[in-house]
Amino acid sequence: MKKINIAIDGPAAAGKSTIAKKVAAALDMVYVDTGAMYRAITLAYLKSDDKDFERLLQDIDIRLVADNGQRVLLSGEDITERIRENDITENVSYVASQGAVRSFLVELQQQMTRDKGVVMDGRDIGTTVIPDAELKIYMVASVEERANRRQLDNEARGIESTVEQLKEDIAHRDHLDMTREISPLTQAGDAIEIDTTGRSIEDVTAIILKLASDKL
Ligand code: C5P
Question: Is 15 marked as binding a ligand?
Answer without folding.
Answer: yes
